[in-house]
Amino acid sequence: MNRRDFLRKTSTATVAAFGLGPGLRGAPASPSSTLRLGLIGTGDRGSALLGEILALAKPHNVQVVALCDVWRKNREAAAAKVQAHQGAAPRAFSRYQELLELAELDAVTIATPDFGHGPILVAALEAGKDVYVEKPMSLDLALANRALELARAQARVVQAGTQRRSDPRQRGAAKALAAGVLGTLSRVSVAMNFNQPRWARAYQDCLAADVDWPAFLMHLPTRPFDARLLRRWHHSKECTNGLSGLWMSHYTDAVSQLTGAPYPASAVAHGGLYVWKDGREHTDTFHALLDYPEGFLFSWAMGLGNSAGVHFTVHGTLGTLDAERWTLSPEGGANTKLEAAPVVPEPCPSHMENWLTCLRSRERPSADIQCGHQHAVATIMAAAALETGRRQVYHPATRTVQAG
């Protein structure tokens, strides 16, 4: 069976298993009706999402009616921004459960620390809300599975925050690869390089009196207030699975879009804490290899001790895609007529606009929850491989990951 037939067969099986057609059940919302949104998490990433929503609010008839953050500083800053734009202050909460109880809410964004994504996503779906959830969609596979089941059963619109899916150049490259321009693919290579202690944020202004500490901890063990943990949660193994979820999630999602391959079959990983010994628990240097059953190997590496830049290349028998410079070339190909040229972009709306549009049309967005499930599986596998030192295998029939 050739690769194109394999992709067609597995795609058909996936549709049968998860009901992954182009649209969702239910009549589209009226364009004249107001979409009422709530924001859960209004820190750096949540504030960026809020800015995008407010910029699109008028043409899409959107109103931010509620927001939630455990830190009063973030909560009040976001509320002031909304009031200045809309002329009315949103309702504000420190606990997401209270926000989700609002019957008037149509949809929510989730931009909390990583360990909150999966539990809050499931809670939002159980409350009947549509969702925009930041990556990684979940650190826990059982929660990712449950979210997928709920979204499909309730016909909810879920957009995962892997915004490269809405990059016209990446969409154009995916179209070119689907047409076979690179021939048979065998390898995808990505490396991210920074020479800085990522996420080492200041925390002196984060005071216990301003934080709903139990709300931050959620399901984590109880402990005294720790401003450093709240502001530098990226460094904690309790709060995220490290470079895999924090960064690789974007690129494993990109690989799925470019190649059409949904899930890796297996993953191995290695890494260490070589440079920034500042109390962080995660590696600052990481390398994972993921094998895909469609017939190629994905290599992903990241280091925080050298700023050599980024590379992202897809290698085929007829040439190479540079997915950072967005060029196709015959480099490395054999007996090819492929000429070096820029990728032809495939026009599309922004990631946020796509989600807002789909809230009305009830179509599946660019990074539908299946895409979120795919990147969750890949990043969970890579993180587990690093943590255990053992190869991890994905079983799609049971949606489980095991060492093997």
Kindly summarize this structure in a few lines.
By secondary structure, the protein is α/β, with parallel strands linked by helices.
Number of strands: 16
Strand arrangement in the largest pleated sheet: 14-13-12-11-7-10-9-8-15-16
pLDDT < 50 stretches: 1-21
Mean pLDDT: 93
- Please identify, by name, the CATH architecture of the largest domain: 2-Layer Sandwich
Report on the biggest sheet. Answer: 10 strands, mixed
Question: Strand pairing plus helix content: what structural class?
Answer: alpha/beta
Terminal CA distance: 26 Å
Q: Tally the helices: what do you get? A: 12
Order of helices and strands: HEHEHEHEHEHEHEHHHEEEEEEEHHEE
Amount of beta strand: 15-25%
Query: What level of helicity do the residues show?
Result: 25-40%
Could you tell me the CATH topology label of the largest domain.
Answer: Dihydrodipicolinate Reductase, domain 2
Output the CATH class name of the largest domain. Alpha Beta
Q: CATH H-level name of the largest domain... which superfamily?
A: Dihydrodipicolinate Reductase, domain 2
Domains (count): 2
Overall outline:
globular
Radius of gyration: 21 Å
Walk me through the topology.
Blueprint (H helix, E strand, L loop, with lengths): L2 H16 L16 E6 L3 H17 L1 E7 L3 H15 L4 E3 L2 H5 L6 E4 L3 H13 L3 E4 L7 H13 L4 E3 L7 H11 L6 E9 L19 H5 L9 H5 L11 H17 L6 E7 L12 E8 L3 E8 L7 E6 L2 E4 L4 E3 L11 E2 L8 H11 L7 H20 L3 E4 L4 E4 L1
Parallel strand pairs: 1-2, 1-4, 2-3, 4-5, 5-6, 7-10
Antiparallel strand pairs: 7-11, 8-9, 8-15, 9-10, 11-12, 12-13, 13-14, 15-16
